[in-house]
Amino acid sequence: MGSAHSSCSLLTTSSTQHFCFPQSPICVSKLRPANQNQIRSIKFTSHSFRCCSSPQNLPLRCNQVGEFETQVKSFKTMADIHGIDQELLNKIVYDALVWSSLHGLVVGDKSVKRSGTIPGVGLVHSPIALLPGSFPETHWKQACELVSIFNELVDRVSLDGKFLQESLSRTKKADDFTSRLLDIHSKMLQMDKKEEIRLGLHRSDYMLDEKTKLLLQVELNTISSSFAGLSQIVSKLHSDLLDQYGEVLGLDSRMIPENNSGNQSAEVLAKAWTEYNNPSAVIMIVVQAEERNMYDQHWLSVHLRKRHNVKTIRKTMAEIDREGELQSDGTLLVDGQAVAVVYFRAGYTPIDYPSETEWAARLLVEQSSAVKCPSISYHLAGTKKIQQELAKPNVLERFLDNKEDIAKIRRCFAGLWSLDDKDIVRKAIEAPDLFVMKPQREGGGNNIYGDDVRKTLVRLQKEGNVEDAAYILMQRIFPSVYPTIFVRDGICHKDHAISELGIFGAYLRNKDKVIVNDQCGYLMRTKVSSSNEGGVAAGFAVLDSIYLT
Amino acid sequence: MGSAHSSCSLLTTSSTQHFCFPQSPICVSKLRPANQNQIRSIKFTSHSFRCCSSPQNLPLRCNQVGEFETQVKSFKTMADIHGIDQELLNKIVYDALVWSSLHGLVVGDKSVKRSGTIPGVGLVHSPIALLPGSFPETHWKQACELVSIFNELVDRVSLDGKFLQESLSRTKKADDFTSRLLDIHSKMLQMDKKEEIRLGLHRSDYMLDEKTKLLLQVELNTISSSFAGLSQIVSKLHSDLLDQYGEVLGLDSRMIPENNSGNQSAEVLAKAWTEYNNPSAVIMIVVQAEERNMYDQHWLSVHLRKRHNVKTIRKTMAEIDREGELQSDGTLLVDGQAVAVVYFRAGYTPIDYPSETEWAARLLVEQSSAVKCPSISYHLAGTKKIQQELAKPNVLERFLDNKEDIAKIRRCFAGLWSLDDKDIVRKAIEAPDLFVMKPQREGGGNNIYGDDVRKTLVRLQKEGNVEDAAYILMQRIFPSVYPTIFVRDGICHKDHAISELGIFGAYLRNKDKVIVNDQCGYLMRTKVSSSNEGGVAAGFAVLDSIYLT
């Protein structure tokens, strides 16, 4: 899930709508179908906040807003970044492009056919923001503080098979993909399959709501969280540029938080490999047949080999089916090699399962003793429907004991409702611009927003099956829009942007022993802000890092 | 000069010719016109030794051969490298391509138009040999030992303006490019211009003659010696691959000599910058307008900035003319910036001087107080004609005092003759396959070899102007042919190859103080061996490193 397979439109900040929401603000996002021939990974679920200045019908969560307003410095944008002298700008861009080329900040160029299958050809610098985006330190700290709680939460949710099955029972009917995942999950429950070593490499994505100054979670990715490899390098690029140009720009590289997302992720994979305790076993990266973001993944493999002498192999789902077998002790052999850890960088979207072959591969992996990153339970725990269920009153309490932790988590929840909430459905019909209808199915598919929300809800009501429809309602988040300099395909482009901050989290436990429960670096993605929804399809999103203010 | 602007055909090792030469073996090389739209830098002057087994007319230099035969281990090729298991081979190739992409071992792809002007786009891994080529340790040591002597020799030759002018007087008539360089040189002599700080970043290129086991110099590049940046990385790639696969291949990464060619070159540039003693001055890299080998150069710039906080600027000859000016104290200003060191990575070929503009730029630089790498004198000292003059009896003695040094240098000289040597002209007509006619003009142009040597010489004799023709005669060197695995554009290709070893040398002095006189890493280039001369134009030459045997 996550950036690797969801992308979203941007909405303007201008709006004539003026009201906000009771329990939590209202979130809208739009997914578009994943396209395997593009760098999927730089798309992201964006939520833009059109308005929330003048409550209408619904009061603001004033106490919370107030709390943050006292804590938080104002969300500054980079001081007139668009005003940088053109000659200086050209130099910085040139240096950034050279730096990227020399330091492996690269992706496969989609205009070069072989670039998704053969490394070393058709390389192009990763799309980047030239300079890091401003982010308030308080919110940064808040996001970091949430990591270990979410890690723990996912683990606990994953152990509650009944909760997962029940919560997703309606989704099962409406979405074949979730249904197939649930089938595997059911089989594991029937087998009483225990995952003693549990590994999560998650990424929790947030947006900062402009008006309320609330850090709101967009989604929690528990499978195939991409960009740990490249994000680390983007932060180094930005640090390097500020070391060089910081003085003239009035910026200090020390304000970019250290980001070792790639190395730390690899470290945790190595620890999981160690726990598995078979020195001759490998780590298997499950990949798509074409992957233009392969270097992001390769950075982890290189670290694993150089620092830990751990070998990685790369296999598609189809190859796993063809070459995989289970030994009687549960060992997964693929192409004759024992697999200690299965690291999914594919398998999160229906597109990755074009035939029964791939489903057989997923089942095979799940049945094995290999450490799965993620297991089917972890995967399901990261679905939008579960996100929505967890947002319901008293659900978090089922999994977490510490009241403070619960409060912290709840504070970052955007509004999430199922369609059986009649009040919300009525409100969404009245003010569709403040909501988004998200299909429950994972891995792509368009969200519904704007007046289409109203139309769709009205139609579903008439048809009498609002509750069964495969949608949830989410609050639309409206993040700050600020000037940015995008660099893509060697071309520099000034525009206004919105950003989404992803915090990587790693969780590893072996039976009762929690070995890792840590933050693991971060990913900032920045996307052009545009009133033209159609323009979004151009996918002008770039890798970024943050500059604490 | 050097790899950056000369390339050459390969000849087969099979031959019906069987005789060798008296003073030194006979060398043949072939230049083809430089093509600005290609990566020129991986072409090299190759000399393949067809035969030298059965003396005919001319005796072998037996004492020297014998001396080497007792010293040198046999020139082993990598143990049946073509026999590597295909699956293993695929893995190594894949890893090599990934490694190259992540570690900046890249060039601009000539199929992408912008790749020579805009960094970060149209990147492709550098063409490489998959594994390092065997090279005898004794010859390696011999080549290293020669560095400081050649460095000193160039410096001394450069100070003898009369020698340069006289030696090149005939070339001046025949070659306009050399003539223009000599004009600038004359002006400097007239001005009594002194270069107190003298900087050379040379590369002496050698081939190992298969039959005689002699290390023979192909050429000495005193301007624009390319690949210091990437060569260092190729050696690291090879070390890394052997760390990973050495056991199964029976190879030990420690047998690859350490190669810090890029960093060391940058260090010496930084030292020259320090000697110039203007903290606000920059190092100017003189570049071609299109340069697909730009990353090779950028590696040096990055080192200069990161380690020494020295700024580099990149300017074409035309830009230098447009933006450059001399201050009354001799300071060179370009675009308003004082230039401490001018590092030429262009200007070595007539193609770089399409108009008077570029010649004006070269003169401007030469008149300035900036440290030139190289000065016009250093440039001229590296011409083929001077190489040939130095090979004449008693000429080295004019510049070097130490008899041992002279003997060492002479030992690596291939046969080099001017066309006024009637005996050699006669021998070349009799046995043209053992010679090559090299045009004296620098920077491109086809060599003449095979039966065309005979035809051309006979024609020139009839016309009565053999001596004035702009050619020299060189011994053709026939290096070992050994199996290699080429990787180019993501494609692996097994073939037989010949190699040329370049040793980088750095020389820096300020008045009487020699600050640096060192070896500075190395460059191994390997090219497919082919009996089809036309096939050479495909330019299948790759970056390589060496494996000591």
TrEMBL record, chains A, B:
Annotated binding of substrate, by residue: 203, 223-226, 291-293, 297, 345-348, 525, 536-537
Cellular localisation: Plastid, Chloroplast
Cellular component GO terms held in the UniProt record: chloroplast; cytosol
Entry-linked SUPFAM superfamilies: Glutathione synthetase ATP-binding domain-like, PreATP-grasp domain
GO molecular function: ATP binding; glutathione binding; glutathione synthase activity; magnesium ion binding
Pathway connected to this protein: Sulfur metabolism; glutathione biosynthesis; glutathione from L-cysteine and L-glutamate: step 2/2
Keyword hit for ATP-binding: yes
Primary location: plastid
Subunit note: Homodimer.
Protein name: Glutathione synthetase
Gene it is expressed from: LOC111454174
